[in-house]
Amino acid sequence: MSTKPSAGAVRWLKPDEERAWRAFLRVMVAVRTGTARDLAAIGLSEPDYEVLSTLSERPDHTSTLGEQADKMGWSRSRLSRHATRMEARGLLRRSPDPTDGRGCLLVLTEHGLDTLGNAAPAHVDSVRHHFIDRLDAEDLVAIERIARKVGEPQAGDDRPLNERRST
């Protein structure tokens, strides 16, 4: 059985839908490229900053590898490799997870906390420059509303597209 939809079953984007989609992609690329470049200038990557900032907000500056991977939308193995590089730089350390013999905890080090403290003002300036200061209050409210809609789970989100089409 073919899972490829027939040409008649495809809901092609209308011109206004395609313009909106492409505009969204351009915004994402522009903001991420700008903020990533600014973080790189101070020696951090976007994932470095996300790991540091989220660990700083956690009790005891600690998270399981699995929780952190889920938050970032990464696989555990990808985050584990990234954590190894951050650990080598002294930004975090790993500890055994007492609740999961195969897992580990990511713990923010003092050096990691200091690095985040030094990077945060520059990162906020970058976010303001590339995003916030270009928008007015109505734009920000609209973005929050849109993000809530897009972020809400829908039936079938846990299944691949080809399986959602066949039901």
UniProtKB/TrEMBL annotation:
Residues 17-152 form the HTH marR-type domain. One of its GO terms (molecular function) is DNA-binding transcription factor activity. GO terms for biological process: response to stress. Residues 60-79, 148-167 are annotated as: Disordered. This is Transcriptional regulator, MarR family. It comes from Micromonospora avicenniae. The lineage of its organism: Bacteria, Bacillati, Actinomycetota, Actinomycetes, Micromonosporales.
